[in-house]
Write a structure and sequence with these properties.
single chain, alpha+beta, SMI1/KNR4-like, two-stranded antiparallel sheet, 29% helix, 24% strand
Length: 178
């Protein structure tokens, strides 16, 4: 488990997704600043994955998914930000990313940030740990949180920004080659 004191109260997955859907339904165009630029605020949400699709993903990767991440996939099979700089992958995107990038089997890329420059990972042998990595430049995974629910809350609150880099020198790292 990551050593992280976390200050955000973790909301249940369903409640977070309901809030995001409600923010999308606001009739007034909403904007926010993202890396110093004014961007439209909103989220792209899909129909949830079927239980069969989630079970198939687990079978293909050889691990059980953490229950909160599984719940997320069943409610929305992926989440994008209107500025297109960050996303949480669909089942199909998880499998595609796994086939393109070489990571240890126990590390599953489930999201990207900074135009896919960073991958967000679940450590499947320790599902209470979330990590980030630049797949080209980094030699180690950087701990960014204790579970998917915590990650989702923080990722949404900072609108897909790489919040873990705000205190990167203080975070736990594990080697890329386990």
């Amino acid at each position: 488990m990551c050593d992280d004191t976390g200050f955000l109260h973790s909301l249940r997955i369903k409640k977070v997704l309901m809030s995001l859907r409600q923010s999308n339904e606001v009739a007034v165009r909403t904007q926010t600043y993202y890396h110093g630029e004014l961007v439209d605020y909103g989220f792209g949400m899909r129909e949830g994955a079927s239980l069969k699709e989630v079970n198939c993903l687990e079978q293909k990767i050889g691990y059980d998914l953490p229950s909160d991440y599984k719940e997320f996939l069943l409610h929305t099979n992926g989440l994008s930000f209107k500025h297109y700089d960050a996303e949480i992958f669909s089942v199909e995107d998880v499998l595609s990313t796994r086939s393109i990038f070489t990571y240890p089997d126990s590390m599953l890329a489930i999201a990207s940030s900074m135009s896919s420059q960073l991958h967000i990972m679940i450590h499947l042998k320790d599902p209470l740990s979330m990590y980030a990595i630049d797949p080209i430049a980094d030699e180690s995974f950087t701990c960014i949180g204790n579970n998917f629910t915590e990650f989702l809350n923080r990722f949404v609150m900072c609108y897909g920004a790489d919040y873990w880099n705000w205190s990167r020198s203080l975070t736990k790292k594990i080697p890329k080659e386990l």
